[in-house]
Automatic annotation (TrEMBL), chain A:
Lineage, uppermost ranks: Bacteria, Bacillati, Actinomycetota, Actinomycetes, Micromonosporales
Annotated protein name in UniProt: ABC transporter ATP-binding protein
Gene Ontology molecular functions: ATP binding; ATP hydrolysis activity
Domain (ABC transporter) ranges: 4-254
Plastid keyword on record: no
Family to which this protein belongs: Belongs to the ABC transporter superfamily.
UniProt GO cellular component terms: plasma membrane
UniProtKB/TrEMBL annotation, chain B:
Bilayer topology term: Multi-pass membrane protein
Subcellular localization, as worded in the UniProt entry: Cell membrane
GO biological process, one term: transmembrane transport
Pfam families to which the protein is assigned, alphabetical: BPD_transp_1
Keyword presence, Membrane: yes
CDD domains noted in UniProt: TM_PBP2 (cd06261)
Lineage top rank: taxon: Bacteria
Protein name (Swiss-Prot/TrEMBL): ABC transporter permease
UniProtKB/TrEMBL annotation, chain C:
Gene Ontology CC entries for this record: plasma membrane
InterPro entries cross-referenced by the UniProt entry: BPD_transp_1_N, MetI-like, MetI-like_sf
Organism: Phytohabitans suffuscus
Record protein name field: ABC transporter permease
PROSITE patterns, A to Z: ABC_TM1
UniProt lineage: Bacteria, Bacillati, Actinomycetota, Actinomycetes, Micromonosporales
Amino acid sequence: MSGLLIEDLRVTIGTAAGPVHALRGVDLAIPPGTFLGLVGESGSGKSLTASAVLGMLPEAATVDAGRVLLDGADILKASRRELRRIRGSQVAAIFQNPVATLNPLIRVGDQIAELIRIHRGAPRRRAAVEAVDLLAAMGIAEPRRRARQYPHQYSGGMAQRAALARALACSPRLLIADEPTTGLDATVQAEVLALIVDRVRAAGASVLLITHDLAAAAQVCERVAVMHDGAVVEQGPTAQVLTAPRDPYTRSLIDSYVLAVDGDTPVEAR
Amino acid sequence: MTALDVRPAARRGPVARWRILVPAAGLAVIALVSLVGPFFLVDPLDVGAGEPLSGPSGAHLFGVDQYGMDVLSRVVSAGRIDLLLALSASAIALVAGIPLGAFAGYRGGAWDQGLLRVAESFQAFPTMLLAMGVTLALGPSLPNLVAVIAVVNIPLYMRLARSAVIPLREADFVLAARCAGRSTFQIVRQHIVPNIAQVAIAQFSVTCAWAIQVLAGLSFIGIGVRMPTAEWGSMIRQGTDHMVTGQWWLSVFPGLAILLTVLALNQIAAAARRWGGPS
Amino acid sequence: MRMASYLGRRLAYFVVSVLGVLVITFVLTRTLPGNPVYLLAGPLTDQEKVDAATRELGLDRPLPAQFVTYVGDLVHGDLGTSLRTSQPVVDDLASRWPATAELAILAILVAVTWALVVGTLAAVFPRSVFARVADLVGSLGVSVPEFWLATVVILVFFTSLGIAPAPIGRISGTPPGTVTGFYTVDAVLTADWSALRASLAQLLLPVLTLALTTGAPMMRTAREFMTGVLGSPYIRAGRALGIPPARLVVRHALPNALLPVTTMVATMFGYLLGGTVMVEFVFAWPGVGKYAVDSITASDYAPVMAVVVLSAIVYLLVYLVTDLVHLVVDPRSRI
């Protein structure tokens, strides 16, 4: 079995007020080379699910049940050393607020080259050349000059391109994009989304796109999963979920979205 | 907002409670002993209390110093002076610094800049050395010592109040008061001072701790409280030479008294800050 | 361009601060007890002689003019004469500053080292026993009076255990030939190994004392900033991309935490100067601090005021240099 398969994942988080059942049985499947959009409001458990896939659950979290299979191997059972190898080379991630996800004191090119050297053991000079090539592949003009700049000299959209270059530096099989366009300008959002689709398709990898933006998910993902209150309430092909939602929560989500976009238009998705 | 940084809730509740209760109780014990203790102990200035330089014993729990004075009596009675001076110096600094800083921050402009520069000039000195200079200039009397420690600390309170007031300046309730025609003074007193009370309390505890350290330091180098009056810093100085020859009780006990008092005050400040801080 | 204007503002700020310091010390010296007029004219004199002395000292001139003279004297190195040593204060300070500098520099190096290592480890392993011990050491180190700690380490390491030499100054035996005035450096330069060992032995306890008391607040600050940095998005992203933890801490987190910590180091330097005064006294260390305390004991105020004003200026200089280093090191300040 290849791709990502999450089976009945149950996670509890210990807080001062007592244990909180943060994930109550999450089931997800992402076949190789496909895009899955994971939508839901904040606090529904989307990002915690992503943390589980990265093997980066918070210290206070305990896994009560379930498996997270990446190409057949259970991430929840991986040792620290295995996890370090898996992260970056098999599964990688980009996050929101891209400028902040880059180290402010290190040149952007060096930050990309660093990953190439860590995961592929490439010599310093070749890694630096590859980093510039990667920046160019992400559509960044003057990549040679840009590689020598620091993150604060990048705009949000450019920083997300650089972050994507970092994430794809070691050709992971799965990219987790956690709210990758949140906080960017509307036009830039579309560009970044298009770039992700283009680059990931070219690499033949799959994507877990975490977003509260239903439209974004619908635009780029073959399949959508809807999370609510720590559980996946519905998942399936995008068109089916959007046009014929079976779960009442999904329906209300679609309604609120359509209403927010255009309050006068009748809700045709029903 | 992603929920990626799910962290365990900040440790509060019972844990936070002992963090403030233990040092507060410790401080209360120290204050009580200093206040009441002298009534039950021999005269701290009595040079015939015991055999000079005799070590701790049943009759003299903390031993006897080189003049024959009882060290326990002196440590306890020194507590009165140190706590009283530290407390009054900190109180003066607070009462003078907070309104000054609040005024500067609220008025802005030339007033703000002028007061800020003065405060910065004082802060440009290493505290202990500034205290040395001012004490020398004024002469080392007890009121002057209080004044010195207060003066050294006023800039701290000014900056604290100033930085707390500046964001409040444009706050709705202040604007409303201004529209209602209140004077600057009234607004500062009614709306701004209560708002910074919490931070000020934490700072007050820190200042008291500092004041004790500075006071003891000045007395140690010979320009603070002088012999024969009992004071922790001057007692340590008095015992310094005897440490080399092994009569440790002269310096160790007053030093422990400073350490415990300052520790309690610092812990209270830390807990107060955590208590009041955002969750 | 932005950098140049920042530089200009920072230098202007330095000048203003120095002026502020000078005004304060000027006022202090004018209010000092022991009116210099009577010192010059003698105790039993008539009004005429007093007036003459007043004129001679320039004390009849307006205060601003006096201030200019005061600053002029300082700039020309005229810090007055010590009544106790009957030497110009400048000469006294010149012969004593290497002792203080050697002690202070070594203490700050040791303090920064342990503060960074312990602070970082405590931030990386926040729930460990190590972090708890660090917490305790930090609280005690902040609260302990350094002059008392100095006497306690003498009691423990010299009187009781006998593993440290007697607190009798910079060296027991003959000092190394003078090159820089720093005994450790001179000993190495002149290959005088017994002098090196002897001077290091003498440095041990005072450095330990100062390093503990000045390092404790630095350690807490380092830990706090490190904790903040470790929780930042770029560390999380780095982890998600498989950068090894040790590398994340050392290469990514530490430099970011170091920037604010250096400001703290500059602040602590001022504290260190105050602490050195008292620690030197306890260890009979023949430096500027002991000079000041001895002068106080002899009611000899010119040297004390000189130490006060010079230490404030040195402190401001250290602060200035720290800010300038920041400017160079932090790419965000460059454009």
